[in-house]
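Chapter summary example.
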Amino acid sequence: MILLLLVAACALTCLGQIAQKLAVESWRGQTSTALAKLATPWLWAALTCLGLGLLLWLLVLQHLEVGIAYPMLGLNFVLITLVAKFGFKESVDLRHWFGVLLVMAGVVMLGWQA
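The structure predicted for these 114 residues follows.
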């Protein structure tokens, strides 16, 4: 159950980050006011996902030590890099991929500890 909460918190956090990117992408080339930007659906989707992710994170912390749980959020680096590369067609260099590999190794090592 706790693993499911942790995965859900990671997923919601990632979705929130993606929605933030989509929100600012929708603002490009526009001279809209701050109030108009606040009405962007992607911004509200980001806030909703991040808020729900926070609530799930609090539940995770009730059951896991923060030293174990927090590094698991490193999976977000992996997921966001994949979305950046394949979803947003951003360039990701070899050094970045190596860093992602190191993060994945660290998450696996810490996962064995839990």
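To summarize the output: Helices lie at 2-27, 34-38, 41-63, 66-72, 75-87, 94-113.
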